[in-house]
Automatic annotation (TrEMBL):
The keyword S-adenosyl-L-methionine does not apply. CDD domains: homeodomain (cd00086). Residues 31-90 bind DNA. This is Apterous B. Coiled coil: none annotated. Residues 30-39 have a biased composition (Basic residues). Keywords: DNA-binding, Homeobox, LIM domain, Metal-binding, Nucleus, Repeat, Zinc.
Length: 95
């Protein structure tokens, strides 16, 4: 029964299943990426743009990346986190 259930749940009783270590091909650990620390001018630029537009498109992200020296992905994550923080603060004010 458990072997037929494995196919349904997506788990395999062997390599990579919960509780079992990853297989030989997956044993190389990823290097942990360092946390990005923003400079004052970068934060000022991002916050001022956030006040105008909370959802920048690809073109806007590219311009901000050139202006701040940050990657588009870092900016994308910053805006995502800023929107979550904005919503969280909005909910606190309403209650």
């Amino acid at each position: 029964l458990s072997s037929s259930m494995d196919g349904l749940t997506g788990y395999d009783a062997g390599v990579g299943s919960p509780g079992n270590p990853a297989g030989p091909a997956q044993q190389q650990q990823r290097t942990k990426r360092m946390r990005t620390s923003f400079k004052h001018h970068q934060l000022r630029t991002m916050k001022s743009y956030f006040a105008i537009n909370q959802n920048p498109d690809a073109k806007d992200l590219k311009q901000l990346a050139q202006k701040t020296g940050l990657s588009k992905r870092v900016l994308q994550v910053w805006f995502q986190n800023a929107r979550a923080k904005w919503r969280r603060n909005l909910m606190r004010q309403e209650s």
